[in-house]
Specification:
With 99 residues, this protein is an all-alpha fold. It has one domain. The protein has five helices and no strands. Helix 1 packs across helix 5 and helix 2 packs across helix 3. The longest helix has 21 residues.
């Protein structure tokens, strides 16, 4: 996925659609327990991060953009949380549009 497209996806002011899914109670309990340990404000933010991670991974694999995916994974391994990565990507996107 190209950096501009990824930056667009990480903008917090994008239009949203309400989606309802059924998830087992024990999975929700685990998400609630794990979310704060990973630096997330709540379990819903963690679910979104998991979906985003899987989607980015599949898009990178399908579109051949392995380099950006490897960078993001490296940042995560070094302890950079998804909120900081999202903020940085939004900043890059803003800079690209300002130029």
């Amino acid at each position: 996925m190209k950096i501009n497209k990824l930056a667009q996806r990480l903008q917090k002011d994008r239009p949203m659609t309400m989606v309802s899914i059924r998830i087992p109670d024990d999975v929700i309990d685990d998400l609630k327990r794990v979310a704060p340990m990973l630096g997330f404000s709540g379990y819903q933010a963690l679910i979104k991060a998991y979906i985003g991670q899987g989607l980015r991974s599949d898009l990178e694999r399908l579109e051949g953009g392995v380099e950006l995916s490897a960078l993001l994974e490296s940042l995560r391994k070094k302890g950079v949380n998804d909120e900081i990565i999202s903020s940085a990507m939004a900043e890059i996107h803003s800079s690209a549009h300002a130029a």
